[in-house]
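Hi there,

I know you've been waiting on this one. I reran it after we fixed the sequence typo, so this is the corrected version. Both the input and the resulting structure follow.
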Amino acid sequence: MDWAVLWLYRAALWDGLAITIGVSVLGMIGSTVLGVAIGCVGTLPSYLLRRLTDCYTGTLRNLPLIVKLFFLYFIAGLPPFVSAVLALVLHQSAYIADVTRAGIRSVAGGQMDAALSLGHGYAQAFRYIVLPQMVRFILPTMTSQYVSVVRSSAVVALIAVPDLTFETQQINVETFRGFEAATAATVLYMLVCSVVIGGMTLLQRHGALR
């Protein structure tokens, strides 16, 4: 084993890590916005909207991430980075939508009825009564969703997005030091996931103290 190769290719590893973090952060933000929106719409008292959201989540959850990625890149013809982010957003938003619906349903329905009987509008009652409680309920589950985004981001190397996995493969091709490169990539992925878990844990503790 020759660990010195990691120092020689440190720039490539850091560049790949930066791309991985960028793709993951954008994937988390996009999937959260879209997933929460779909989940909220799915709880509205409308049969059609519920069926549409069920179709959205069911279809996207049953399609592998790599299928979405290849469709966006090879069929839709989107740029590699855009395809990578959009595939992660679509894939994870289906799971976050289900988490959001479960969180909303965990809030006692009587609270919404009481707010409506006091003259508050549905949107106002949802924003000030249901939403804050729902956020506290889903934070633990959202941690695993965000970690899943980081893990899944490795797939984008298949369409030549120069993320950490892609750079690891390049180091292996050029030096035949795949074990050393893979070890470094594993440690870096673990560090990113640890930061995500730590940040979400702090959010949970902050919410518990409020």
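Quick highlight: Residues 4-209 form a domain with the MetI-like fold fold (CATH 1.10.3720.10).

Best,
R. S.
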